[in-house]
Amino acid sequence: MARVAVVTGGTRGIGEAISVALKDAGYKVAATYAGNDAAAKAFHDKTGIAVFKFDVADFKSCEKGVAEITAKLGPIEILVNNAGITRDGTIVKMTPEQWEQVIHTNLTSCFNMCRLVIESMRARGFGRIVNIGSINGQAGQYGQVNYAAAKSGIHGFTKALAQEGASKGITVNAIAPGYINTDMVRAVPQPVLEKIVAKIPVGRLGEASEIARGVLFLVADEGGFVTGSTLSINGGQHMY
Ligand code: NDP
């Protein structure tokens, strides 16, 4: 029986590529999203992948979402915590709302989703969790204290949960993408983007499919000995 995989923020950008790669590899996939119904519909029409709308920053809405996915597809054995946002600004201009939105959407979401799937994974003796961090959680980034803190938190969260899951067949790993060609990065002003690309040794942005390849490696049944790791996929920009 095909394993059920959930990709949060799985309808656009990196998440879209992950959802499609998992489907192509034979998994039963649920892609979640927050509010962009048009993008989710276009994604569903193109791929046939089931979509579920709920806010990963909110525990109660995750509870409903996970119950709905489980009822429709079966118990979740693979979870990719990918949903994320940026609300950039230097700290002198950053509002408490910008701080909270980014921490809750990028980091609290990992707690919410893992908390809700972990008991079923433990009972089944199998689970694969991949959390999408960021190069900016490893190295920091000007104008992103909120985002860097959330992503850095993901790396610690991953190592702690990996220890809790290890004896139960559950692996927990992170991927730290560098700059990837998605809406999030296309929103960066062109002159800033040019400076960023100039610092990437391979000389280009990454593609979402290059992150998806890492996810496939980590979630494989054969991946049971890889846990608590962070896989950096960043064109050589930051060697950690
Ligand atoms: P996009 O902005 O292209 O897509 C974000 C996805 O997350 C969308 O599907 C969006 O749903 C969903 N989402 C956002 N907020 C919520 C929420 N509260 N609840 C549920 N879903 C939500 O992002 P990217 O593909 O660029 O980024 C994906 C991940 O990779 C993020 O965690 C990001 O931080 C990380 N990353 C990205 C890098 C890059 O260069 N792009 C570099 C390093 C890390 P909707 O469509 O409804 O808005």
UniProtKB/TrEMBL annotation:
UniProt family annotation: Belongs to the short-chain dehydrogenases/reductases (SDR) family.
Keyword field: Oxidoreductase
Gene3D superfamilies in the cross-refs: NAD(P)-binding Rossmann-like Domain (3.40.50.720)
Organism: Dongia sedimenti
Ketoreductase domain span: 3-178
Record-linked PANTHER family: 3-OXOACYL-(ACYL-CARRIER-PROTEIN) REDUCTASE, 3-OXOACYL-[ACYL-CARRIER-PROTEIN] REDUCTASE FABG
Alphabetized CDD domains for the sequence: BKR_SDR_c
Protein name: Acetoacetyl-CoA reductase
Coiled coil: none
Domain of life assignment: Bacteria
MF annotations from Gene Ontology: acetoacetyl-CoA reductase activity
InterPro entries per UniProt: Acetoacetyl-CoA_reductase (IPR011283), KR_dom (IPR057326), NAD(P)-bd_dom_sf (IPR036291), Sc_DH/Rdtase_CS (IPR020904), SDR (IPR050259), SDR_fam (IPR002347)
EC number of the protein: 1.1.1.36
